[in-house]
């Protein structure tokens, strides 16, 4: 590993060359100018960053001491609240205000819909996610359990008929006809500026004629019909020669719907990036997305091809003019938080650079290419999602950081927009004041159940043993937290300006359950919610046709607001009298999830994947799921619900099960992964098993209960041993 000395920085040569030779050309930013301003900003900001992390630890110690002092007493919430104010954990709520964010793309401000999250280190996944702006509703239904029954190895016409019937019913609900049923329409054409639907020679029309906005082909024989509802588009493809169209009563071969309106390209929880080599891989993929030239070589069914980013979609408006629609999701970039450092750059005091500072500069530098082409943002905005901030002071630091980046790169103030992940307790309880600190650049607040629960447990670690993980979703604090996020966002003027988001659906194979449950997110007033795949985005998009989120938000504004006192309800067990069997079952569930994720992270460098749970149900796992599971066991250990020997026994038992599950996973022999190495063959020498154990047995002392420090350490160790 070689370094280049530049302006009191030691920069990994691979990173240095990448910035100079791949990012800077075409940006109007000179190399010497960039590195000079970058170095000045880094050395100014790094000490502030460090002090903020130290403040977290000081506050946590005060929290621990208070709980120890009050152990065995009845919990007095008034005294607790006063204590939180005395240590500046709770800050004063000032006067009401509205956010001032401007130059926001419509995908953020006025279109409600699904939001994908994709790891930036996998080019193929990133391209798929960007292209997921449009998806086939037919394919999404045919390939998932939303439609009951087996798919079979060849086309199943009976299943296909069920898909068509499902989609026609969706059209009936959303694009209602004046008299007829979409299932009985046999011909579609355009007369003058109206969509005409024919049954038995009789004409019918949309109940709301304005929903028809464009087409392709000839008016008498259109090849596609473009409809719009709740700011979302649906493209009905008509092709009598296709396999589906030739037997469809109206020759409809496809129904393509606007799906992933936005996509978070993730540098954080779903990515294992521990050094310059890893970071350059991530930055290079992001650069390709910003330039619009990212490609991935693919092979399917013995055929090789290149996957590219989709172009825009073009239509003829009903008045004869042209319509161009964005062919790709609006891309946001999730930088890392304030905690971690990275050896890619060494500062003059020989410390590693705060990774979040490096991310902000380099991801924005890449985005300058889009500022010229406007293939992503039409408004010359760059969207950074910022995770794991603790309270208003840390949000204010992010605002300062982004201002430094804007000055260094000579772009207008507030060109960099910020999304706040509301996933730490100190941010939740001070959410209004957090928003105030970035009121001119905020575009996003999002709840994250898993990280938020992990922080809930770590913050109140000394208060007592926590309830079962499954009971958390029914707890008072969690329901209040979800409502609080929406209430505060609406009070601060988010509607029509910024996103209020909800968390991930973690079971990509359980799409029927998602369709039954996730409609609750738009009903809750959230104008975006996370999904794990393009298919899930397409299915979830139908919810936003059925629910007008902006109308829901108007209703929600008048409801009783979530209360701070409920947010401060600690989810500890009052009288933990659980049986050994109940305790072991919970330990096994947690341990299996930890091991299944960690072995991929440490051995393969995979930050997010579908990991089979204890019941062999595939769950999308990332560091957030790891945080809650490891903190839960650590908490129980600390409060003697279980013993170290008991937990170690469970860890070894579940490691063998994870080994068996992964042996059958074909992914280990493709996508560049090495073959699977069993943890149970030699527990003592397995770095992955050691990492999983450390996360549990050293979980109490991890900063805020985060998993990154240990994971990074063990991944670097594994890379050196390879």
- The value of Rg in angstroms is 26 Å
Number of helices: 24
Report the sheet-strand fraction: 15-25%
How many domains would you count in the coordinates? 3
Strand order of the largest sheet: 3-12-17-20-21-22-23-24
CATH topology of the largest domain: TIM Barrel
Q: Any idea what the shape is?
A: globular
CATH superfamily of the largest domain, by name, is: Malate synthase, domain 3
Task: Outline the secondary-structure elements.
Elements: E1 3-6, E2 9-12, H1 13-23, H2 31-69, H3 77-86, H4 106-109, E3 113-119, H5 123-130, E4 134-136, H6 137-142, H7 157-174, E5 187-191, E6 194-199, E7 202-204, E8 212-217, E9 222-229, E10 232-238, E11 252-258, E12 262-266, H8 276-291, E13 296-300, E14 303-307, E15 313-317, E16 322-325, E17 330-334, E18 341-346, E19 352-354, H9 355-373, E20 382-386, H10 391-409, E21 416-422, H11 425-428, H12 431-437, E22 442-447, H13 449-459, H14 476-491, E23 499-502, H15 511-517, H16 520-523, E24 528-531, H17 534-546, H18 549-556, H19 564-567, H20 580-604, E25 609-612, E26 618-621, H21 623-638, H22 644-663, H23 687-697, H24 708-721
Parallel strand pairs: 3-12, 3-24, 12-17, 17-20, 20-21, 21-22, 22-23, 23-24
Antiparallel strand pairs: 1-2, 2-18, 4-11, 5-6, 6-7, 8-9, 8-15, 9-10, 10-11, 13-14, 15-16, 18-19, 25-26
Helix pairs in contact: 1-8, 2-10, 8-9, 9-10, 10-12, 13-21, 20-21, 20-22, 20-23, 20-24, 21-23, 22-23, 23-24
């Amino acid at each position: 590993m070689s370094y280049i000395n530049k302006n009191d920085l030691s920069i990994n040569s691979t990173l240095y060359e990448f910035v100079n030779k791949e990012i800077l050309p075409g940006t109007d930013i000179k190399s010497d100018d960039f590195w000079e301003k970058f170095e000045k900003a880094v050395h100014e900001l790094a000490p502030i960053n460090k002090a903020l992390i130290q403040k977290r630890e000081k506050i946590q110690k005060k929290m621990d001491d208070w709980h120890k002092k009050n152990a065995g007493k009845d919990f007095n919430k008034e005294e607790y609240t006063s204590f939180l104010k005395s240590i500046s954990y709770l800050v004063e709520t000032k006067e009401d205000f509205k956010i001032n964010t401007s130059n926001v793309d419509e995908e953020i401000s006025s279109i409600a819909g699904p939001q994908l999250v994709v790891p930036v280190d996998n080019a193929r996944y990133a391209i798929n996610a960007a292209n997921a702006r449009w998806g086939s509703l037919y394919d999404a239904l045919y390939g998932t359990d939303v439609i009951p029954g087996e798919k079979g190895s060849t086309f199943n016409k009976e299943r296909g008929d069920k898909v068509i019937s499902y989609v026609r019913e969706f059209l009936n609900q959303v694009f209602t006809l004046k008299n007829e049923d979409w299932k009985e329409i046999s011909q579609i054409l355009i007369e003058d500026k109206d969509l005409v639907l024919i049954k038995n020679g009789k004409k019918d029309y949309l109940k709301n004629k304005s929903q028809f906005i464009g087409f392709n082909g000839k008016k008498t024989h259109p090849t596609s019909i473009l409809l719009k509802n709740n700011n979302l588009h649906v493209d009905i493809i008509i092709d009598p020669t296709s396999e589906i169209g030739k037997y469809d009563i109206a020759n409809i071969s496809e129904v393509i719907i606007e799906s992933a309106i936005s996509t978070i390209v993730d540098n954080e929880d779903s990515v294992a990036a521990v050094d310059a080599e890893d970071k350059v891989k991530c930055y290079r993929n992001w650069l390709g997305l910003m330039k619009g030239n990212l490609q991935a070589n693919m092979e399917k069914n013995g055929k090789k091809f290149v996957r590219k980013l989709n172009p825009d979609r073009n239509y003829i408006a009903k008045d004869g003019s042209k319509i161009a629609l964005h062919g790709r999701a609006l891309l946001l970039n999730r930088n890392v938080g304030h905690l971690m450092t990275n050896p890619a750059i060494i500062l003059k005091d020989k410390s590693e650079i705060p990774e979040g500072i490096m991310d902000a500069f380099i991801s924005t530098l890449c985005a300058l290419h889009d500022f010229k082409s406007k293939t992503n943002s039409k408004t010359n905005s760059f969207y950074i999602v910022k995770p794991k901030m603790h309270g208003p002071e840390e949000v204010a630091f992010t605002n300062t950081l982004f201002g430094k980046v804007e000055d260094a790169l000579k772009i207008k103030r507030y060109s960099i927009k910020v999304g706040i992940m509301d996933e730490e307790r100190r941010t939740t309880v001070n959410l209004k004041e957090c928003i105030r600190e970035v009121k001119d650049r905020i575009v996003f607040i999002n709840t994250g159940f898993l990280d938020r629960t992990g922080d809930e447990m770590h913050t109140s670690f000394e208060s007592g043993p926590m309830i079962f993980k499954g009971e958390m979703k029914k707890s008072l604090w969690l329901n209040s937290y979800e409502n609080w996020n929406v209430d505060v966002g609406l009070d601060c003027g988010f509607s029509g300006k910024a996103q209020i988001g909800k968390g991930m659906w973690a079971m990509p194979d359980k799409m029927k359950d998602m369709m039954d449950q996730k409609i609750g997110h738009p009903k809750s007033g959230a104008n975006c919610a996370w999904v794990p795949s393009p298919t899930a985005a397409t299915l979830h998009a139908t919810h936003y046709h059925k629910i007008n989120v902006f109308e829901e938000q108007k209703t929600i504004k008048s409801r009783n607001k979530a209360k701070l006192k409920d947010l401060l309800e600690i989810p500890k067990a009052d009288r933990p009298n659980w049986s050994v069997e109940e305790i072991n079952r919970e330990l096994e569930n947690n341990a299996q999830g930890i091991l299944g994720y960690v072995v991929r992270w440490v051995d393969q460098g995979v930050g997010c994947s579908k990991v089979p749970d204890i019941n062999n149900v595939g769950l999308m796992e990332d560091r957030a799921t790891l945080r809650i599971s490891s903190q839960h066991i650590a908490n129980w250990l600390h409060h003697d619900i279980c013993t170290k020997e008991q937990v170690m026994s469970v860890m070894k038992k579940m490691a063998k099960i994870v080994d068996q599950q992964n042996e059958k996973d074909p992914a280990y022999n493709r996508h560049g992964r090495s073959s699977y190495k069993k943890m149970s063959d030699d527990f003592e020498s397995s770095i992955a098993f050691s990492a999983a154990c450390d996360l549990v047995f050293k979980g109490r002392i991890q900063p805020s209960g985060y998993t990154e420090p240990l994971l990074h350490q063990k991944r670097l160790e594994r890379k050196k041993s390879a």
